[in-house]
Automatic annotation (TrEMBL):
Keywords: ATP-binding, Nucleotide-binding. It comes from the Bacteria. CDD domains: LuxR_C_like (cd06170). It comes from Actinacidiphila polyblastidii. Gene3D superfamilies: Winged helix-like DNA-binding domain superfamily/Winged helix DNA-binding domain. It holds the Pfam family AAA_16. InterPro entries: AAA_16 (IPR041664), P-loop_NTPase (IPR027417), Sig_transdc_resp-reg_C-effctor (IPR016032), Tscrpt_reg_LuxR_C (IPR000792), WH-like_DNA-bd_sf (IPR036388). The keyword Zinc-finger does not apply. Residues 851-916 form the HTH luxR-type domain. This is AAA family ATPase. SMART domains: HTH_LUXR.
Amino acid sequence: MESIVETMVGRGREQEVLSGFVTAPGGRSLVLQGDAGVGKSTLLEHVVRLAADDGQQVIRAAGVEAESGLPFAGLHQLLYPLLSCIDELDSGQREVFDVVFGRGGGIPPSAMTLGIAVLDLLALAASERPLLLVVDDGQWLDTASTDVCGFVGRRLTGSSVRLVVSLRSDVSSGFDTAALPTLAVATLSESASEELLDRHHPGLDAQIRRLVLDEAQGNPLALLELPPYVRGNRAGRDPVELSGYTGVPLPQRLQQMYASRIKALDSAVRAQLLRGALDGVRAGTAAGRAGGSRFRMADAGEAVECGLLDVDPLTGDFVFRHPLVRSAVVQMATPNERRAAHAALARVHRDDLERRATHLAACAVDPDEEVAAALEAAADSATRRGGALTAVAWLTRAAELSESHEERSRRLGSAAYIAGHSGRLHHAQQLVRSDSGLDDHDSPSSVVTSAYAALFEEGDLRSSQRQVFAAISTLRDSGVQERDEALTRLVVLLLAINQYVGDADMWERSHQLLDSLGDLVSPHARVYQDAWGDVVRRGAGVHERVESALAHLRDLEPWDITRLGVAAYHVDVLSRYRPLLQRTVEREVEAGAVADAMTMLNLIMLDQIAVGEWDEAERTGQRTLDLTTRLNHPLFSFHTRGYLGLVAALRGEVEQARELQAMVDTWARPRGVGFLTQIADAVGTMAALSEGDYEAAYLNAIGITPPGSFTPYAHQASRTLLDLVEAALATGRSEQARTHALAARDAGLPDISPRLALLTYGSLAMTTSDPQEADDLFHRAQTHPGAAAFPFELARIRLAQGTRLRHTQGRKAARPSLTLAAETFERLGAAAWTERARAELSATSASAPASTAHLAALTWQERRIADLAAGGLTNKEIGERMHLSPRTVSSHLYHAFPKLGVTTRAALRDALGGTPDQTA
């Protein structure tokens, strides 16, 4: 028998490249790309033979159209032979594979997380023997598998793993943008075509030979297959007449050729071929689907004899000779024959939820509630496995097969809901409109879809708020007895809109409405109700409820994780869930579910800000802003700008912070988006604090909430506790500062979150007049179990403690706190705060009069204001004397303090070198 190399003609260049690919040291990847029938599969067989001769382990997989919508189907083929190696990985990586392959619960990982785990698995499998992964017909691989293969293929350098993928040039796929090295497989030259034709079909009539060469145009499959077809159809006609199909693409002509052979088969054999084609039995030599049930063609020897099938020498299974044969089998079948085949395959896959549902849907004609329910269950599975778009298609089909209008509407609503969360709002609206039984826009699905459009796109939030509220009221008044998806979606949507609008009256009305529904409101929605609105009054115990909910990941949809993440942010326990969000967000971005992804990215950014990863936070924010801008989601765009403004303010980049603050406020305030206007006010507060303009900081802070109280449903009211206290103290408003700190204690803020505990104890310590109480409270703040998770706030409290200690207990006692504060500010990149802490720390050294250079560095106005401040005048009194605003006075002092090496008014007298002149 001739070897593969001996039967290949005109492929010297390709063989040379592939030989180097297989034998050169190190891991690598390669894509073979060319037209159908050009010889890619033959070249893959050549690669396999070379690898086997070199002692390498070979694992093969193939993409098939029937499986292109099943998440991870292709990856399962590749990794199934390595399941024993998976058990040798650490527990975290085993969990990743358990989720992907249905061996355990949890959230499906992102392509990056899974790709890293796959790389580790492949490295383990190749540790004793080099490994070759072969993927034929990669264009039909499911999206999730393509993403992972692309990720892995770009990172094989230095390993003992090689990956080779074949692709059809005329079919787009995820590999097109995977940036893997590519070898273009072109058609054969004229001389090579003649050699191949003469070798396999010697003695052809000259006219037929010329016709075949002209029609094949260098395509090897056509050169091998056309001669019998031409001879068999000549029937006394002149060969020139056989070129009547010229102009039809070659793959279609080859399918026509295969169709003539299929017609001649016995009906039972045709049925076997059809089931194999519809179930994804691959073409060429390879094992069938790894693991689980699969269809095996039987009694099909007749198809082998006529060149439609081959026999796999490893398994003995019948396999299609070429993908075009499989396509021809499906195209030739009648609708009834295809439905019968799908019904048979549904029985084969009775234990495989998603495959069974796919075949049941294809064989159903009339409404069938059993099939619709199976499709709905498969859609739920696909959603949790990262296949949101597949879920929309299955739910749409389930709606078509529903036996009642109510079930049809419910399933269309679910499809629209998932489409909306995937950022496909127009598709969602089309699905809702397709429910022909509705003659108005007041159905729950219609209300939900239009309200999400108003949220995610630029819309009237208050109008949507009223519409959703009315829809819930209608359901309640109709006597609804059971909790259902429509009600739950409306309730959660109302809470989300309420959070953004921030209207206290509507929140109170909503609480009354939801309380009247009792147990019809889901436990998750109750968490959102308490966390998203007024966390000061309703936040106690929320973090335990969030933890309990997230302990059951297997039961959660992506949007559940997003919403619980928002609740975790409001009670400051987001850090422990950030890894979950990062795994989920990458998957959602890859799968196109961008609406949830944008919220998750904002949550990740908020946690990065909280823990002091400000560079990473800015990168996350820029990524989110690019995504939201590109997809035209204004709400999320300005939301992200607000957080970028906060990062800039923390760093002391005041000009940029105020520019972003103005952008957010200009967009949000006219639209009544209170959530964003509060973020803008918080940015202004922090920018002023960084600049040392304490008067402006105070005015911004009391715009969020007045001292001594926490404005209901103002989510920044508690978050800016320390800001208001510090600004009040710096502007001589000690009574207001103390009142606000006591209000935090009396409101029970330390019981709500670790951050609020830190801020409350710190504020109480800064405002008490009792030295022992201050020491105890500073100690309590800094030793709180959650304090280290909020380094910026902790450093501010240490700065305040060190400053106080320097005045009450001396320089030596102050240095430890001030040193820690200065080091933290410097590590975070908070330039203004670092300078402030360093100046205070320098004051703990031996005192020395200010140098002439220091004094000379002051402007006349700075020197005059410093003299008056050293004499004990307030900013307001100084302003009255110099005809300046208190804010301008504060700004001049901010610039003067570092020049003099001081941070407080009390140090000004010594720094100025004598008794200040208080004359006007």
